[in-house]
């Protein structure tokens, strides 16, 4: 798919695939957040101290497996973003229109909120944990950490799911995306929980009403996602030259 920057009303606004993509992003994000956030609550129910090495591995595994499944079930419908930072990267790289990006963002945030509400109901009123900075971790350090972690995530998404020349790699994209999230959780978990996803952070924060340093989990992922898209889109992917039989896009196409 060629790069395409559409800042005005596009065919996406009335295309039925847009609503199907909205539903896919909503359901898949809810599946991911329910399983990933639910693992926090489950671990806290079993152990009083969840900051052990074993607990960290469990949380990383839950995030990796749930994300891999959630991406798999939506990849062929919406692209399997499930993350506003991934959607921003696709928008910065010209892979989706502005309208569709906003549709995805709405679906992702609503899906995360829905999953957090379901968790609170299913667990008898337990407050979602969400993300928070560990003791001794500065806000600036946490922002940099989120930038680096999200850069790795979005770069992986680009290489395995968005790159038009990905070839057979696209079949294992969900697994690779899950792996990088699991690995990043092992790295960043002890410091700030390793959100890498504003929707994943927002849903539990809203339902659990935990807002301390919440902005970190928006700024870091959005900056990291945009940087990864710029690097991969303009430095890694070869320049796309139009086929001689293809007509260039006209203003009417947007």
UniProtKB/TrEMBL annotation:
Similarity comment: Belongs to the MIP/aquaporin (TC 1.A.8) family. TIP (TC 1.A.8.10) subfamily.
A Pfam family this chain is assigned to: MIP
PROSITE patterns listed in its UniProt record: MIP (PS00221)
InterPro entries, A to Z: Aquaporin-like (IPR023271), Aquaporin_transptr (IPR034294), MIP (IPR000425), MIP_CS (IPR022357)
An annotated Gene Ontology molecular function: water channel activity
Segments crossing the lipid bilayer: 21-41, 53-77, 98-121, 141-160, 172-191, 211-235
Xref: PANTHER family: AQUAPORIN TIP3-2-RELATED, AQUAPORIN-8
Subcellular location: Vacuole membrane
Keyword Transmembrane carried by entry: yes
Membrane topology: Multi-pass membrane protein
Gene Ontology cellular component list: vacuolar membrane
Annotated signal peptide: none
Protein name per UniProt: Aquaporin TIP3-1
Subcellular location, principal: membrane
Keyword Lipoprotein: no
Keywords assigned: Membrane, Repeat, Transmembrane, Transmembrane helix, Transport, Vacuole
Originating species: Platanthera zijinensis
């Amino acid at each position: 798919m060629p790069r395409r920057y559409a800042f005005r009303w596009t065919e996406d606004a009335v295309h039925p695939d847009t609503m199907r993509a909205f539903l896919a992003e909503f359901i898949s994000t809810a599946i991911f957040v329910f399983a990933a956030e639910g693992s926090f609550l489950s671990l806290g129910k079993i152990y009083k101290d969840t900051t052990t090495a074993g607990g960290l591995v469990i949380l990383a595994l839950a995030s990796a497996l749930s994300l891999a499944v959630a991406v798999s079930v939506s990849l062929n419908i919406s692209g399997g973003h499930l993350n506003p930072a991934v959607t921003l990267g696709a928008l910065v790289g010209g892979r989706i229109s502005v309208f569709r990006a906003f549709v995805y963002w709405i679906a992702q945030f609503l899906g995360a909120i829905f999953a957090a509400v379901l968790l609170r109901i299913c667990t008898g009123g337990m407050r979602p944990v969400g993300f928070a900075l560990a003791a001794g971790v500065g806000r600036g350090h946490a922002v940099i950490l989120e930038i680096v972690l999200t850069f790795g995530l979005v770069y992986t998404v680009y290489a395995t799911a968005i790159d038009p020349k990905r070839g057979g790699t696209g079949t294992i994209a969900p697994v690779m995306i899950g792996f990088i999230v699991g690995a990043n959780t092992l790295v960043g978990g002890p410091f700030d929980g390793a959100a890498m996803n504003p929707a994943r952070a927002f849903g539990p924060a809203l339902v659990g009403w935990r807002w301390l340093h919440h902005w970190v989990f928006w700024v870091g992922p959005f900056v990291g996602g945009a940087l990864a898209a710029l690097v991969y889109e303009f430095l890694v992917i070869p320049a796309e030259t139009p086929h001689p039989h293809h007509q260039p896009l006209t203003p009417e196409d947007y």
